[in-house]
Amino acid sequence: MIRLNVFIQVSAERRAATLEAAKALTACSLQDKGCIAYDIFESATRPDVLLICETWADADALAAHSATEHFERYVGQIEQLGQMKLEQFEF
After folding, report:
1. Cβ atoms within 10 A of the Cβ of 74, count?
2. Total structural domains in the chain?
């Protein structure tokens, strides 16, 4: 399995729009083949940080997800709104 932690740093003015795009991405991604888990977390100590935590069955499932229209649309929106940092782990 593959776990992705996607940290998003966003200004207060752009936070609501970023969270909206992240929720739309999550709803679509949960339907993707090989998606084990997909969720959004809000930092309790840093209001400028959101986290998307994803778990994928394998590299093929993650690659297919990364090529979807909803991934390109919503990740593109999030990248325009804030700064993203990706951590990837295999287990």
Report:
1. 21
2. 1
Cβ neighbours of residue 11 under 8 Å, at least 6 residues apart? 48, 82
Give tens-digit pLDDT for 12-45: 999 999 999 999 999 999 999 999 999 999 999 9
CB crowding 7-36: b at 16 or more within 10 Å, else e: bbebeeeebeebbebbeebbebbeebebbe
Distance CA 36, CA 48 (A): 27
Query: Residue 52 is part of a domain; what is its CATH number?
Result: 3.30.70.100
Domain that holds residue 37: 2-90
Q: Which residues on adjacent β-strands are paired with residue 38?
A: 54
Task: Note if the pTM is more than 0.70.
Answer: yes
| Reported confidence tier of residue 62, pLDDT bands at 50, 70, 90 | very high
Q: H helices within 1-91, ranges in order?
A: 12-29, 59-66, 69-81
